[in-house]
Design goal:
The protein has helices spanning 29-32, 39-44, 48-54, and strands spanning 7-12, 15-22, 25-28, 67-69. It is an alpha+beta fold. Strands 3-2-1-4 form a four-stranded antiparallel sheet. Strand 1 (7-12) and strand 2 form a beta hairpin. It starts with 6 loop residues before the first strand and ends in a 5-residue tail after the last strand.
Length: 74
């Protein structure tokens, strides 16, 4: 059974990014996937498999450190 991938876009300070939300926090995929500047570009490329791969990493950011944005802000 495949677990649902919880995605989010967010702003931390002056920087906007996107990532995978886990029970332990957010994995900043935008910092790792430089070829995809935002969530829309990941989805347009059909590259959600890359997000699934990163979902196994330790969380980078606590949810209380960010401002939530719409999942696909543009």
């Amino acid at each position: 059974m495949t677990t649902a991938l919880r995605i989010a876009s967010f702003k931390q300070g002056t920087r906007s990014s996107y990532g995978v939300v886990t029970d332990k926090g957010i994995i900043d995929c935008g910092a790792r996937l430089k070829e995809f500047p935002d969530m829309r570009s990941v989805l347009q490329a059909g590259a959600t498999n890359l997000l699934r791969g990163l979902a196994q990493l330790e969380a980078d950011i606590s949810p209380d450190e960010i401002e939530w944005l719409p999942p696909i802000p543009n």
